[in-house]
Write a structure and sequence with these properties.
Blueprint: E1 5-9, E2 22-25, H1 27-34, E3 40-42, H2 45-77, E4 80-85, E5 92-97, H3 99-108, E6 118-119, E7 123-125, E8 127-136, E9 139-149
Parallel strand pairs: 4-9
Antiparallel strand pairs: 1-2, 1-3, 5-7, 6-8, 8-9
Length: 153
């Protein structure tokens, strides 16, 4: 007759659970794999209480980070960037506006947003475009970028 033991997962384990979860596994799986690899600890009262505390602290930290990200997203949403680039007679740009160009313009306005967080379609002609910023998980902001032709030859 197969017995099972409760363990507290220290890290996410595929097809078993997330870190901090208490799961039932066979004694051999716990003894030979999970515990030696540092993936789990026996589910004693102390271990369960410690992981509950860690989960609570992590949830509070995540909520605070999400609130900060939402405030940044609101500020970024109100931004309108105006960029100029050399363009031909039909409004086609000689080159394109890249996420690096937009990152530089945002830095000039006081926003420190990495170009990797910007979702920019190829901007290859004069006009107004919407750019999405992935501020944090589940927090996005959209702002407008207006591209005009430069008067320089």
């Amino acid at each position: 007759m197969a017995r099972s033991v409760n363990v507290v997962l220290q890290k996410d384990v595929d097809k078993l659970g997330k870190g901090g979860d208490v799961v039932k596994v066979s004694p051999g799986f716990a003894r030979n794999f999970l515990v030696p690899k540092g993936l789990a600890l026996p589910a004693s009262e102390g271990n369960v209480a410690r992981f509950e505390h860690i989960k609570r602290v992590a949830a509070e930290r995540a909520a605070k980070a999400r609130a900060e990200a939402k405030s940044v997203a609101e500020k970024v949403s109100s931004v309108e960037l105006a960029l100029t680039a050399r363009a031909g007679s039909e409004g086609k740009l000689y080159g394109s506006i890249t996420s690096k160009d937009i990152e530089t313009a945002l830095k000039a306005k006081g926003f420190d947003i990495d170009k990797k967080k910007l979702k920019v379609d190829n901007i290859r002609s004069v006009g107004t475009y919407e750019v999405v910023v992935h501020v944090a998980p589940e927090v996005n902001a959209t702002f407008k970028v207006t591209v005009t032709a430069s008067t320089e030859g």
